[in-house]
Design goal:
14 helices, 29-stranded mixed beta sheet, Rossmann fold, binds 2-acetamido-2-deoxy-beta-D-glucopyranose, inflammatory response, elongated
């Protein structure tokens, strides 16, 4: 290619689009870096078993950082006053939503539109006054709606339209006032089974206002409405089995107008508590249920009680009678004389002091009798000779003494409750006939001596409650007669002595509660637990078990309890530092949970857990531990939950070497941890929940990794992370850790990727620009560089010049050069000229030819013409010459 060949200057057709594409990619790169990634540290709530729990947080709005995978959302007891349309948009799999106890007065329409999976919604105790048209739009799968205790007056006729699957509606304690509003609700609910409209100030009930919309209703609560006329002229509740029509808030008699006795003839449970009607009306009410009634509640009746008992006991199917809050003082011999079919009688919450000895004589089928919350001072003789009695509840009376005949002949009794009385002592004979007793509740009395009551007679007893009494010692063989006992509650007594062999015979015992007594460590050393070979759970909290060295005990206290799963030994009121003997847990090969919280522990021996390979939960919080050996954890690789709150430990570094690959839950509140390193977290691959509340964090680059992890990881929930505070450096004290800017710290991979892609893109833009617009200038620069090299190479050689002059000219000027210039200079002057068409070496690169020619000539002569100036090659020749 000679000097002067015409070059193509048009831009490639695709060039502009290419440029736009690059700019777009560049912006995209920036955007993807800026968009925040939602993390797993929630601002106010926590997630537990896929339930978002935000209870009692003073929230004023629904939090938006709940992961969209949660299935239940509990927002109860907050201060939310308004539900916005977008509040629940992102929770498509939610099945349960609890908004109980807020200040909600407004719900934007469509707020629930995306909750198509929702099954239960609780809006109880809010301030709603009306239910607007599209309020519940979208809740097509809802089965349960609770909207009790609001101020609802108005209901739009279409507001319940979409809830076709609703089975339960509780709209009690509102102000509906008219049954037509109830109708406008339930007409859209073909599958409604339970309807609660208690206390809505309804004044009338006419069946024609309901039509036949309530075909599937089984449960209806109309109680506490001042209904003046209850009029049923059609069978509007053909499937009703549970009906509450009790209690009017006003002193006004309700008129009963049910034309056909078959209309309520399937009701089996009827509650007429506090109902004010004439005796004749109640009678005709009871007549309508004469063949179906099984359970009747007549609590807090104002009048006619004996007559009502008589008439209701004439219903042969009626077996359960509840008569609470009736201010009965005395039960006469005739009160229940007609109740021969009653099997369950509930006289709770009366003022009964005396019961006639033959008051229950007719109740020959009675199985359950409750006399709790009365004023009895002894076990009434009337309770004997009930041949089928299985449960007797005498709790919360004033019984102070139990006699040997009190439970005579109660051979069928399975459950006896005597708690909350003032019994001070038992005797050997009290329970002698209770051969079938399974559960005995004697808690909260003043029993200080068992007097051998449990040494015989109780072959079937499985649960014995003796907590909250005044026992001081457990004597040898005290529970010898309780071979079937499984649960024994002895907590909150004053026990300080456990005699040798005190648990003899309790071979089937699985749970023993001994917390809050005065047991000391020397009581354990005697092997008192050796008889409890089936024990699963032993609670010794809040006693005073304390050792002053960690050297091995001569006799390990739990060495025979190889089935024990849970052991708790925390203390509360017991001063002084302590240690745990290194063989304290010897024998507990199946221990799953060990709770040693708050025992003023100074150290833990590294061999402590060698005996408990199954351990899953370990709580050593609230101790003064300064140091933990990583070896402590090597025998307990199954650990799933670890509590190490409130210790004097300065870091979690002992976890890095502990190999706790199964640890899921870590609670380490209120420690002095300032930095949580990546190694610690990486060493816990199964961690799903970590609670680091109340630590004093360093707000610097040391925690940059932690910060990023809290926000970005999607496996581990970091409880309360948004409230973590800085403690160091001093100028950041009190600031929130998550507000810290870590940009300056993070030379992280992502950032490097970002920078390098950005640079690559920029570079390719520059290259493409240059290629399109400055291609030839680059070529010059390249050749200039070559010339420079050549120059330096030839400077030293001082080679003799081959030509006198090199002629640089444009091809178009060639005729002139050959015809005019050449004869003049070569012919007349005798110069040796170098001409490119004549003297350039064929095959050699043009550029080399040019440079060789120029360097081989003493002078360069340029034939300057317009064409010459236009030509790229020619201007290059000038450049090279210069
Ligand atoms: C509604 O519930 C049914 C049965 O529980 C389920 O199969 C269906 O997918 C649910 N619909 C929606 C939209 O979640
Ligand atoms: C009510 O009953 C009438 C006739 O008995 C029937 O035509 C109508 O479809 C029923 N309505 C409902 C909602 O079941
Ligand atoms: C119920 O029916 C029985 C006969 O089966 C009768 O003796 C009794 O008086 C009726 N009771 C009421 C409340 O109607
Ligand atoms: C216990 O039952 C027997 C026989 O059924 C009877 O003779 C005895 O009087 C009863 N004892 C008491 C205290 O009622
Ligand atoms: C102890 O428990 C086992 C299994 O629960 C049971 O088979 C056995 O009968 C019980 N022993 C007594 C004396 O109740
Ligand atoms: C942790 O596990 C590794 C290999 O699984 C083992 O080499 C190391 O000794 C273990 N460390 C402890 C403290 O058990
Ligand atoms: C969690 O993050 C990991 C890696 O960052 C990713 O592979 C995984 O898909 C994420 N899981 C979910 C449920 O987002």
């Amino acid at each position: 290619m000679g000097c002067g060949v015409k070059e193509d200057k048009t831009t490639a057709p695709g060039g502009r689009k290419y440029f736009e594409l690059i700019v777009f990619l560049f912006l995209l790169n920036i955007i993807s870096f800026v968009v925040p990634i939602t993390g797993f540290a929630l601002k106010t709530c926590r997630i537990s078993y896929n339930i978002a729990i935000c209870v009692r947080n003073d929230l004023r709005a629904v939090p938006r950082d709940i992961p969209s995978t949660v299935e239940a959302f509990d927002l109860s007891s907050n201060k939310i006053s308004r539900i916005q349309e977008s509040d629940f948009k992102h929770l498509p799999v939610l099945t349960q939503l609890d908004l109980n106890r807020n200040y909600i007065s407004q719900i934007e329409s469509g707020a629930f539109a995306n909750l198509t999976s929702l099954k239960r919604l609780n809006l109880n105790n809010n301030k709603l006054t009306e239910l607007g048209e599209d309020l519940f739009h979208g809740l097509s799968n809802l089965t349960e709606l609770r909207i009790m205790s609001n101020h609802i007056k108005a209901v739009a006729s279409t507001s319940f339209k979409s809830m076709t699957r609703l089975k339960l509606l509780d709209i009690s304690h509102n102000k509906l006032q008219h049954i037509t509003k109830v109708h406008s609700i339930i007409q859209h609910l073909p599958h409604l089974r339970e309807l609660y409209i208690k206390n809505n100030n309804l004044t009338t009930f006419h069946s024609w206002e309901l039509t036949n919309s309530s075909l599937e209703l089984k449960y209806v609560d109309l109680s506490q409405n001042p209904i003046s006329v209850f009029s049923v002229t059609a069978d509007v509740f053909p499937n009703l089995t549970w009906f509450n029509i009790g209690g009017s808030p006003r002193k006004q008699l309700m008129k009963w107008d049910v034309r056909n006795k078959t209309f309520l003839s399937r009701v089996s449970t009827l509650d007429i508590s506090g109902l004010q009607m004439t005796f004749d009306d109640i009678k005709s009410l009871l007549e309508t249920v004469n063949s179906s009634l099984t359970s009747l509640r007549m609590n807090a009746m104002k009048q006619h009680l004996p007559a009502l008992i008589n008439i209701s006991c004439s219903i042969p199917t009626m077996s359960t009678l509840q008569l609470r809050y009736n201010k009965l003082r005395f039960v006469s011999s005739g009160l229940f004389k007609l109740c021969i079919n009653v099997t369950e009688l509930d006289l709770t919450e009366n003022k009964i002091r005396n019961i006639h000895d033959s008051a229950f004589r007719s109740l020959q089928r009675l199985r359950i009798l409750s006399l709790s919350h009365n004023r009895l001072s002894s076990v009434p003789a009337a309770t004997r000779n009930l041949p089928t009695l299985g449960e007797l509840d005498l709790s919360s009376n004033n019984i102070s003494k139990l006699g040997c005949d009190d439970f005579t002949n109660q051979t069928m009794l399975r459950q006896l409750s005597l708690y909350q009385n003032s019994v001070s002592a038992l005797s050997e004979c009290v329970f002698k006939d209770l051969i079938r007793l399974q559960v005995l509740k004697l808690q909260t009395n003043r029993i200080s001596n068992l007097n051998g009551a449990f040494q015989k007679y109780f072959p079937k007893l499985t649960k014995l409650y003796l907590n909250k009494n005044e026992l001081m010692a457990i004597k040898q063989g005290e529970f010898r007669g309780l071979q079937s006992l499984q649960n024994l509650s002895l907590h909150e007594n004053k026990i300080d002595t456990l005699e040798n062999g005190c648990f003899i015979g309790l071979t089937n015992l699985t749970d023993i509660l001994l917390q809050k007594n005065h047991i000391k460590e020397n009581e354990l050393n005697k092997g008192v637990f050796n008889d409890l070979i089936n024990l699963r759970r032993l609670d010794l909290r809040d006693n005073c078990i304390k050792y002053n060295s960690s050297s091995a005990l001569p006799y390990a206290p739990f060495s025979q309890l190889f089935r024990l799963e849970t052991l708790a030994i925390p203390l509360q009121h017991c001063k002084g530092k302590s240690h745990l003997p290194r063989n304290f847990l010897q024998g507990l090969t199946n221990l799953l949970v060990f709770n040693a919280r708050n025992i003023q522990l100074l150290s833990l021996h590294k061999d402590m857990f060698n005996y408990t390979p199954q351990l899953q939960t370990l709580d050593i919080s609230s101790n003064e531990l300064m140091d933990l050996s990583p070896e402590l954890f090597s025998p307990i690789q199954n650990l799933q939950s670890l509590y190490v709150s409130r210790t004097s430990l300065r870091s979690l570094n002992y976890l890095t070497d502990a190999n706790l690959t199964k640890l899921q839950f870590l609670q380490a509140r209120k420690n002095q941890y300032s930095v949580i390193s990546e190694e610690i977290i990486q060493s816990l691959p199964a961690l799903v929940y970590v609670d680091l509340q109340g630590n004093s964090f360093t707000c610097g680059c040391d925690n940059a990794w932690l910060l990023k992890w809290i926000v970005n990881n999607n496996q581990t929930q970091v409880f309360d992370a948004y409230n973590f505070e800085c403690n160091y450096p001093v100028n950041l004290k009190g600031k929130k850790l998550l507000d810290l800017s870590i940009q300056s710290c993070s030379v992280d991979i992502e950032f490097i990727y970002f920078i390098s892609t950005t640079c690559t893109i920029l570079l390719s833009m520059v290259v493409s620009f240059t290629y399109h617009f400055l291609r030839w200038h680059l070529a010059y620069a390249y050749y200039l560089f070559l010339a420079f090299l050549f120059d330096t190479k030839h400077k030293n050689k001082q080679a003799p010049n081959q030509y006198d002059a090199f002629i640089s000219y444009n091809t178009h000027d060639e005729p002139w050069v050959i015809r005019e210039l050449l004869p003049k200079l070569e012919g007349e002057q005798g110069w040796r000229l170098c001409l490119h068409h004549r003297d350039f070496e064929p095959g050699k690169p043009i550029v080399d030819n040019i440079t060789d020619a120029i360097y081989g000539s003493r002078k360069t002569i340029c034939v300057i013409s317009r064409r010459y100036l236009d030509s790229e090659w020619c201007s290059r020749e000038i450049q090279v010459a210069r």
